[in-house]
Amino acid sequence: MSAPAPFRTLLLIFLAQFLFLSIFLFYKNSPKKDSVQESFGEVSKRDKVEVVDDKSDALNQAEWEKERQKFLDRENEWEKEKQELLTKEKELQRDLELAKQRSEQITKDLERERSSRRQNELRRAKEREEEKKKEELLEKERDQALKNAEERLQAFAARQIVEKKETQAELEEEVKKFYREIPDYRPNSCKNHQVPKEVEKRTISVVICYLNESVPILARTVSSLIIRTPPEMLHEIIMVDDLSSTKLPPLLSTHPKIKVLENSRREGLIRSRVKGADAATGDVLVFLDSHVEAGVNWAPALVERMITNYRAVAVPVIDVIEEEGTQKVVGADMRYKGVFDENLIFQWMLDSKRNENNLHEPYASPAMPGGLYAITKKYWEELGKYDMEMDVWGGENIEMSIKAWQCGGSIELVPCSHFGHVFRIKLPAPYQYPMDSGLVVKKNSLRVAAVWTDNYSKYFFQRLTGKENEEDVRAIVNFGDIGARSKLRKSLGCKSMEWYLDNVYPELKATILNNTKLNIPH
Q1: Which of 390, 382, 386, 387 is nearest to 494 (CA)?
Q2: Is the model's pTM score more than 0.85?
Q3: Quick one: how far is CA 301 from the chain centroid?
Q4: Which of 358, 405, 472, 482 is surrounded by the most beta carbons within 10 Å?
Q5: Which of 460, 452, 496 is nearest to 477 (CA)?
Q6: Element (H or E) spanning 442, and its range?
Q7: Which among 32-46, 82-96, 468-482 has the top mean pLDDT?
Q8: Residue 505 confidence class, pLDDT cut points 50, 70, 90
Q9: Model pLDDT, residue 262
Q10: Within 13 Å of residue 410, how many CA atoms lie on the same side as its CB?
């Protein structure tokens, strides 16, 4: 960094004075011209005398002249240096004068700057004072505004509490309006069973898809879940409206546990369930039909199976709700397991291993009906959810059953968890197919056979279409591209269909080997 301007000016003045003094002293002590000439005169006289006195030792005249010329040249050089020094003296005096002028100008500039700075500081001090007064005024206004807002919030909160109590009371009345008591068909040992505390920490997202469902039955489904599910476990009830002409009662749909998703077009049960599951944020997904009633303490018993094994898919016992009259609930026989026949259609089969001594214990089932079951969201996503190329419903439960078993999980029926279900036999089911139902189910089933049954697919192809070769089958029913599902199965490292038949469902293997119709004992 260079020195400040005032300092440079003072340094220049000092150097000029020093140089001037040096010139003066040099000039004062330098020999005068007359003295030089006198010296040369004396030398000349002395030399002449010496020449006269001693001609043999006399200097050559030319040499004497040469020496004399040297003295004269030196005198001229001194004179020249003197003139140069005088010129430099004048220049230094001029520079000194300029430096003084510059110093005076800098001093004036500094004074003006100091004056301007003092004025700016005074102005800023005045502005700060004014700002301080403004801030104090704003702070007073803000304090008053906060006080007023707090008073309004307190008044609003008081009104909200009153309105919430009124709304909650109305909601409770609305829920109770559709709720009814139903028989408890659980084994007696279930009623005394204490589930681990860890169970109550798991949250449940219930997913219900509906299409033109009876409003009272739909509302009864929801109200039974709200009343019969521990509040800390019931995280949400996601209702997927598949362009239904019937809706939940308006007041009931505002319940804080209920979320309604509306499809922009008809998607069918399979894709609607996937949509609901994608929106769910609970630990456990519980898929239910829209015409069920929750039994006593259904949730803890169902979730308990997933505490030690998140790959356990739990299915409640499904009691029968009569479709007409008082819609009485009839208890189901808890000695049956779920299977599927040679057409990949779900059936109930009597399990010879079940008896009165173990009716309360969960037990393995080769397949599940699909309308009601619970699965951890983690395992649901690991298994690739449902096959989105399937249509409406039918066959998705068989796919889920086979792949759960083959891919490290299990299907288990839980006798301590009960749901009532309306089985429509005389009346038409509300979830109607927009196309030929038989063709839809056949297409879905063929996709299951092609992806999950390995070499046994020929057996199911033959049963479903009368053809064994896939190309011939596709000529009858085009069941679409199965590349993504086959890739999924490979990525999961699932077991073979042979393993499934040997270890989970041996009854079907015997039927296939004998090429006979499956004998299902009832």
Answers
A1: 382
A2: no
A3: 33
A4: 405
A5: 460
A6: helix 437-452
A7: 468-482
A8: very high
A9: 95
A10: 15
